[in-house]
């Protein structure tokens, strides 16, 4: 894989459609219009019970298929330890990281979406222009906005690409350390940088070189952890394929104090659901980019229609409203 061949980056930076949709009930719709904010739900509270951990199983499968000879076996063992650490106790574990997602879809008026997320057809499908939602490339932000990954072969390809940087990077470093030529070149570089007495030479060189190796390994680990985070948040079981979901991924360190988003909870039956309220884009307090409203196929009340029209007018939202085209008898 070359520096120009980065499947993870290509997936994360696909062109954003001009219109994406979010299904909700009346209270959710009204809350968004009044506050100018949208809810992003903690991944551990979503309908898919395999959320986030699904990717760990794929990563483990990819690692099992790595070569087991010479340095490759060592890299394979290191990759396994790295993935276990990341997901179980490290930077991607629930003890260290909260991950919130806001779901959108390319489908504006679909019965399955109405029933699952649109209050059984009595809610609303909200059309947003989210083309400015994604952080710019090179910003260093771990916030992502991209389509979910459903096909097993595609998940495997992307997670394999995410792991590639760590595996190839550690292999390269180990082979350098084992090369007398490389060590000699490093010693000459050190000597040119620091003309010191012979007695202090070896210790100082070893510290300098060890720091270099540590920083290189850390760079590989952080890049891979960031890619695994994005892929883990976007990988979905194929049974959810019909949802055609685009997902805003908002990672938050467990103890991080938030400046422009707010942690909240609500009850779903007897379960506590954690979520964030955030502006779109996150951290930028602008007008909600709502462009169109579709009323569900069972949302025929003129009182509701008038209430929605008054709500939009009160909050200076010019989004047009139309009825669902689905001829469903409610």
Quaternary state of this entry equals single chain
Instruction: Give the helix/strand class.
Output: alpha+beta
Describe the biggest sheet? 6 strands, antiparallel
Strand order of the largest sheet: 5-6-3-2-8-7
The low-confidence parts are none
Structural Rg: 25 Å
Task: Kindly describe this structure.
The chain is elongated. It is α+β, with helices and mostly antiparallel strands and 330 residues long. It has one domain. The chain is built from nine helices and ten strands.
Quick summary:
Helices cover 44% and strands 18% of the residues. The protein has 330 residues and is of the alpha+beta class. A 6-stranded antiparallel sheet has the order 5-6-3-2-8-7.
Secondary structure: elements and pairs:
Layout: H1 7-12, E1 20-24, H2 26-35, E2 38-42, H3 53-64, H4 70-88, E3 97-105, H5 111-117, E4 124-128, E5 144-147, H6 152-177, H7 180-193, H8 198-234, E6 245-253, E7 262-268, E8 271-278, E9 290-295, H9 302-314, E10 321-323
Parallel strand pairs: 9-10
Antiparallel strand pairs: 1-4, 2-3, 2-8, 3-6, 4-9, 5-6, 7-8
